[in-house]
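Our preliminary data section would be incomplete without showing what the modeling component actually yields. Below, a chain of 412 amino acids is followed by its predicted structure, encoded as C-alpha cells that our downstream tools consume directly.
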Amino acid sequence: MNLIENIREGLASIAGNRLRTVLTSLIIAIGITSLVGILTAIEGIKSSVANSFAGLGANTFSIVARQDAFRRGGRVEKQDKPIDYRQAIQFKQRFPYGATIAVSTVVSGGAQAKFGSKKTNPNVQLIGGDAAYIAVKGFTLQSGRNFTDNDLTYALNVAVLGSEVANTLFEKKLNPINQVIRVSGNQYKIIGVLAKKGGLSGGDEDRMILIPLDNARAVAGTQQLTFNITASAPTVADQDEAVGEARGVMRVIRQDQLGQRDSFDIERADELAKETDTITGYLRMGGFGIGFITLLGASIALLNIMLVSVTERTREIGIRKSLGATPARIREQFLIEAIVICVMGGIGGIVLGLGVGNLIAGLISQGNGTFVVPWLWMGMGILVCISVGLFAGIYPAVRASKLDPIEALRYE
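Predicted structure:
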C-alpha cells in the first residue's frame, strides 16, 4: 500500500463518517477562529491607530498641562497650573524653528448645537482654535473654508463643524455652508465642514465645533481655560532637536526654576505610536495564549475521537495487516486522516476568524479601519492545524499499527 493509496483510503474513511468528520472539524474550526479572530482584530485595531497617527504626522508634538495630581515622596502634590493664553501666544512667537504651530482650547465638552427644530446631544466639543488647527491636527475640509485672518482678528461668530454634528443638524438634506446655528447662547455662521475622521476616540473628533480662538475666550467669560499647543516640526529628523528647544522655551515662559520638573507635558506622536505598538504586542501574546488553550482542548477532543475510530476499525486493520500492510502504512493512514480533518477545520476557522476579527476591529474603530488579511497568522494557523493533527493522531496511529492481526480479525 503506497502513499497515494493511503491518502485515498484516509479520504474515503473521512467521507464515510461525515457527521463525525464535520463535528470534529468544527471543534478545530472554533479553536482556529479564536486564534485568527483575536489576532486579526488586534491587527485591525493597530492599523486604525496607525492611520490616526499618520493623519497627525510623525513629526508632530503637543504641549499640554497635566490635569491630574501626582504623588511624590509619599504625598500628593497639586496639579500643574493651566497653560494660559499669554503663555501659548508667547510660545508661538518665540519658538525659533520653522514649525507650524496651532493653539487651541476646549471651551466645553458638553455643548449642544441647535438649528431650527434640530439639535444635537449635549456631548459636542466646543473648541477654540486658529487657522493652523485643522492642518496640524490632521483634519481635512469636506466643504467650505478655513478661518481667515479677518475671522481671527475680529473674533467673528463663524464656525467649522465636525462631520457628525453637520449630519445630525442637516441630515445631508441641506448644505450647511452659510447656515446659522446656535451654540452656548450664541449664533454662528457655518463656513466649513470637516471630513469624517473617526478613530479609536469614539468619534469625539467628529463631534466638535471649531470657532476662532478669541471668540472662544469671549464665550468662556470668567471660566478658566487651559490652552494646548500643537507643533509640526519641519521634518522628522528635526523633531528631537525641536522638542528639546520647545521644552527650553516653555520652561522659560512658565518660569520653571532650575532643577524643578517641567510644569507641562510634551506628547510626541511617534512616542504614542510606539507605546501603542507595545500594547498591541502584549495583546497579541494574550490572544495567542487564549487561542492556544482553545486549540489544546480541540486537540484532546480529536485525540479521543481518533481513539474511538481505531477501536471501531480494529477488524479493518486486521484485514489490512493480513493483506501485507506494514505498521508504518497503518500509522500513515491514521495520521493522514487526523491531519486532513484538522486542515479542513483550520480553513473554515481562518475564514470565520477573518470575518469576526475584522468585524470587531471595525466596531472598535468606528468603521474607520481597513479590512486586514494577516497572512502571517493565517499561515501559522495552518501550521498549528497540522501540528494539532500530528499531536492528536500519532498515539491512535501507533496503537493501531501495533494491533495483532489475528486478534484484530477476531474483534467484533
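The chain has two domains: 3-53+273-410, 60-267. Residues 269-312 form the longest helix (44 residues). Preliminary results of this kind motivate Aim 1 of the renewal.
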